[in-house]
Amino acid sequence: MSNILFVASECTPFIKTGGLADVMGSLPQALKREAKQEVRVILPLYDEMDDIWKDQMEYLTTFDVQLGWRKQEAQLFKLEYDQITYYFIANDYYFTRKGIYGYYDDGERFVFFSHAVIESLRHLDYRPEVLHAHDWQAGITVALANIMKPIEEMKTIFTIHNLKYQGVMPLHIFDDFFNLRREHIAGMEWDGMLNCLKSALFHADKITTVSPSYAEEIKDPYYGEGIHTILQERSDDLIGVLNGIDTKEYNPSTDPNLFVNYRSARSKKRQNRIKLEEEISLPYKDGTPLYIIITRLVEQKGLYLVQHILDEFLEEDVHFVVLGTGDPEFEIYFADLANRYPDKVKAILSFDEGLARRLYASADFFMMPSKFEPCGLSQLIALQYKTVPIVRETGGLKDSVSSYNEWTGEGNGFSFMNYNAHDLLNVLHYSLTIYGNTTEWQNLLKNVNKSQFSWKESAHQYAEIYANLVPESILG
Ligand code: ADP
């Protein structure tokens, strides 16, 4: 058993904007359950978090965080939830804003958070053997842990959940916010900027990412987001471990958000669909398949492909619902689409966990034609709710969805390879053909029902990585 400290910027059920939060909210439990690891999690304490969580927290201490020539105060809180210990770092300036990201000084905010995490190690009632940081917001903790050695023997792991977001800011931040010798700039600088993600890639003992395919892809310039040469250099230390989902949390037979709970019965999915379409004011039509998208509305999710062909696909007898928030360009597009097809299309431009669950439960098809996808959890959730995923063959989508093959009867979804709108349209038409053929459709659903993406296997893979890092003499 090793002592692991996860560092991240979001975690369910406290605060979530995307898949990172789902992983932070379920992997520690899985590591405990499946591989007997002690994992604790440290997060920023955002004003945005619900009071029900804040009210349960135990105040531990207040300490100063030195940022260049100035100091900021941090308060440390603790909360036990679902058998896991969480620590939270509060600060009156950086985390008292609406939402959690999207501010001009996000870089500085998470540089502060990272310094505070390292400083907090002196105050915690816990001595981690491995600091496991997730995504750019936690990247600087890896660099500081390696340079400052707050715990001499502590090892570091950095997990890339999305290489696109790197936490890039002007280099003068190094002088203003760090108390390190100038020689350390080299490990943190990339392309003339201070880069949080690169800092972690440079300093981490091991680097992981969230699917085997993405681990390969990011060494290539097309997927490498300008940083592939570093990943090539560190190739021997880069491991892809496929994410799982919390199958207790995402369980259609117990999910309280649904109108009707079910295991796999299509009739019960239909009952959910009828009530859902009533809820969102879409006129239900028997026999018409429901296609959905639930996502952050950003280019990554393949929305330009969708935009290019959706009018043509809507000539078919189908319903389409999108739930998402993000780039105004896509919000405007989907709102306009819904106006033009009031009987077929609904665009719900908000973040709504309950509605998302009801959509997963009601839909026949889940569309996720991503340009790139480190792992993707939505397609796993869709499968869990017996909804057929339609994906582009990239990253974790490629590792979790295989295209249905009429001749062999194999495959749990539909997929296409090239980033090409007409390839998406073709596969959408093909999905409709299979939907209309009872034998093929039943075959496909059998495969969907068998798909399982729990954390079990991946938890063991992480445990092995920890065991290789921490010499046995230190293991408890
Ligand atoms: P990413 O992390 O890139 O956003 P993932 O597929 O890994 O993509 O995870 C997305 C998670 O966020 C899923 O749990 C999905 O259901 C959820 N989600 C995305 N947009 C919304 C929304 N508008 N309302 C509710 N849940 C959403």
Strand line-up of the largest beta sheet? 3-4-5-2-1-6-7-11-12
Low-confidence stretches: none
Structural domain tally:
2
Let me know the largest β-sheet: 9 strands, mixed
Number of helices: 19
Please state the second-level CATH architecture of the largest domain: 3-Layer(aba) Sandwich
What does the average pLDDT come to? 96
CATH superfamily of the largest domain: Glycogen Phosphorylase B
The structural class is alpha/beta
Q: What compounds are bound to the protein?
A: adenosine-5'-diphosphate
What is the CATH T-level topology of the largest domain? Answer: Rossmann fold
Q: Give a count of the beta strands, DSSP E runs of length 2 or more.
A: 18
Helix content: 25-40%
CATH class of the largest domain: Alpha Beta
Rounded to an integer, what's the Rg over CA atoms? 23 Å
CA-based shape? globular
**Gap between N and C termini:** 6 Å
Strand content: 15-25%
Brief sketch in words of this structure:
This is Glycogen synthase. It contains 19 helices and 18 strands.
Explain this structure to me?
The radius of gyration is 23 Å and the shape is globular. 37% of the residues lie in helices and 21% in strands. It has helices at residues 19-24, 27-35, 51-54, 106-120, 139-148, 172-177, 185-188, 196-203, 212-217, 228-233, 266-279, 303-313, 328-340, 353-362, 378-384, 395-400, 421-435, 438-450, 456-469; strands at residues 3-7, 38-44, 58-67, 70-81, 84-90, 130-134, 155-160, 168-170, 189-190, 193-195, 206-209, 238-240, 290-297, 319-326, 345-348, 365-368, 388-392, 414-416. The strands form 3 sheets. Strands 3-4-5-2-1-6-7-11-12 form a 9-stranded mixed beta sheet, sandwiched between helices. Strands 15-14-13-16-17-18 form a 6-stranded parallel beta sheet, with helices on both faces. The chain folds into 2 domains: 3-244 and 456-469, Glycogen Phosphorylase B (Rossmann fold, 3-Layer(aba) Sandwich), CATH 3.40.50.2000; 266-450, Glycogen Phosphorylase B (Rossmann fold, 3-Layer(aba) Sandwich), CATH 3.40.50.2000. With 476 residues, it is α/β, with parallel strands linked by helices. The chain is built from 19 helices and 18 strands. It binds adenosine-5'-diphosphate.
